[in-house]
Amino acid sequence: MNRRGTAALEAVIASGLTLMLLLVTVSLFTAVHVQWKEISQAQLQRQWAALAFTYLDADMAEAQAVSITPLELRVTLPDGQWVYRVSAENSFYRGRGYDYYALAMVDSARWWREGDLLWVELSFPGGKYRCCWLAPGDRS
Amino acid sequence: MAEGFFRGRKGYFLLEVTAAAAVIALAATALLGALLAAEQIALTARAVTRGRLLAKAHLEMARAGKAPAVLHQDGLTSTLTVLDWGGSELWQVEVEGDHLFRNLTVVSGP
Fold first, then answer.
1. How far, rounded to the nearest angstrom, does the alpha carbon of residue A70 sit from its chain's CA centroid?
2. Chain A partners of B63 at a C-beta cutoff of 8 Å?
3. pTM over 0.95
4. Which of A6, A18, A24, A114 to mutate to test the interface with B (most CBs of B within 10 A)?
5. pLDDT tens, position by position, A76-115
6. CA–CA separation, A74 vs A90, rounded Å?
7. How far is A39 from chain B (nearest CA, A)?
8. Which residues contact B61 (CB under 8 A, 6 or more apart)?
9. What radius of gyration, in Å, describes the C-alpha atoms of chain B?
10. Where are the domains of chain B?
11. For the complex shown, is ipTM > 0.90?
12. What backbone phi and psi angles, to 5 degrees, belong to A76?
């Protein structure tokens, strides 16, 4: 093989290797990006759940009465009533009058009573979070 | 002999393939390591959040007078112990699970 042939062969080999390296790197980054996105989503849902349960916990600690329907959870506090609902856009929120605090984007939220205990469960695509409180009054 | 090896076309080709493979392996290892670490952190954080909620629920059940000694939920196990604190009763809940490196302990009173 002459000099030009050798140079051409080396150029082809170098290009091939660069392409291979690029392909592998892109596949790796894609796989990492997808996995990273899943992890981030799960983390976000966990933070939303923690925030929602922190608000519920604070409200339940001072609750004078709690009533539930399939659509809402109503907590009576010394300063008035707060309502927890899921909006049509799947936003779990805490509201009173015109006040509106979005707490989490959920798949679903449900609440039920077991004796004196009030259970609240928030479902996300990545899993469920639930807790219960000894809730006073009003067994709707 | 080595000089002869690297001067040969086969030698160059082998060297370039080895170098590329080494770079790919290094990048893959670094990314995999970062990903595994992130996943482990996320799993632990989720276990801690769920563990705190489980401990809270278990203590509320104790307040309601209907707490089982051991409660299982989402791969976590919560154990309730009644403590005697200078004549008064306290409840201690200890949560353990797969992704918890240390047990979570919460103490509360009636």
1. 22
2. 134
3. no
4. A24
5. 999 899 999 999 999 999 999 888 899 999 999 999 999 8
6. 18
7. 6
8. A117, A132, B67, B68, B71
9. 28
10. 2-108
11. no
12. -95, 120
